[in-house]
Amino acid sequence: MTPPPLADRLDGLLFFPVTAYGPDGALDLDAFRAHVRAGVEHGAAAVFACCGTGEFHALTPDEYRACVAAAVEEVAGRVPVVAGTGYGTALAVRYARLAEEAGADGLLALPPYLVVADQAGLLRHYAALAAATSLDLVVYQRDNAVFTPETAADLARLDRVIGFKDGLGDLDLMQRIVSAVRAEGLDLLYFNGLPTAELTGSAYRGIGVTLYSSAVFCFVPEVALAFHRAIGAGDQATVDRLVDGFYRPFADLRAKGRGYAVSLVKAGVRLRGLDVGEVRPPLTEPAPAHVEELAELIDRGLALVGAETGR
């Protein structure tokens, strides 16, 4: 039986697992599988493997393919698996084809490596990537890949480009992008892709962007799910309580170190009992005092939603 189109399946809380390494720094697929399995069992609507939180930048092509294949096998069709891809056009195409070989359902296109291209160059890059495989593509706006509303509409015209994820946080630009795409009679899925997307969830919903990636889901799915239910139901009191008591303090802690958007999440997974190893260079581990702050924040978040700490 042919599964529904990817665009029809990306509805719910989106899970971006970390990539697990052993004590020697090598890939630990058993721990990675356990992490993916736990996320799906907690209710993730999709698994985005080897993306930003999954240290795409640190993986060799062989490791990347192994991780995507492990996620596909572990998920076993219960939810879609979307794989990250990036770098220059040639390497992005290579990774995309590896993801397709591994059985992924779609791709998240990370920004091109290093260079700052004009709009025509960006469009050429994503057009080549979209044409390289049979997989549907979500384009990630952030850093050196920022689009005008007109270019976003051109992206929406490309076959297999189904989504636009915003990691920039410019709501004025996002509103103009949504409007420009709609005015052309085109359609895209829109995602809030900021590092702690829950903080801006209400603002993004105001312009029609309801999907978001939740890094917090990696280590406190109980809190992430409670927030997701509350914001979907319009329960502003619960949304405010979780923002004030957990998400804002977490974002404040994340801002204390470079790379904490990844390394702090990984530390949180370890604090909850699954040893996924440390981050790879050039990222570094959080300071011990910050890990202790994170442990206290986890307990506070779980208490806010009435869950057991389990520590």
TrEMBL record:
Record has Lyase as a keyword: yes
Gene3D superfamilies: Aldolase class I
SMART domains: DHDPS (SM01130)
EC nos: 4.2.1.41
Pathway involvement of the protein, from the record: Carbohydrate acid metabolism; D-glucarate degradation; 2,5-dioxopentanoate from D-glucarate: step 2/2
A Pfam family assignment: DHDPS
Keywords: Lyase
InterPro entries for this protein: Aldolase_TIM, DapA-like, Dehydro-deoxyglucarate_dehyd
Class in the EC hierarchy, top level: lyase
Catalytically driven reaction(s): 5-dehydro-4-deoxy-D-glucarate + H(+) = 2,5-dioxopentanoate + CO2 + H2O
Similarity annotation: Belongs to the DapA family.
UniProt name for this protein: Probable 5-dehydro-4-deoxyglucarate dehydratase
Organism of this sequence: Streptomyces tamarix
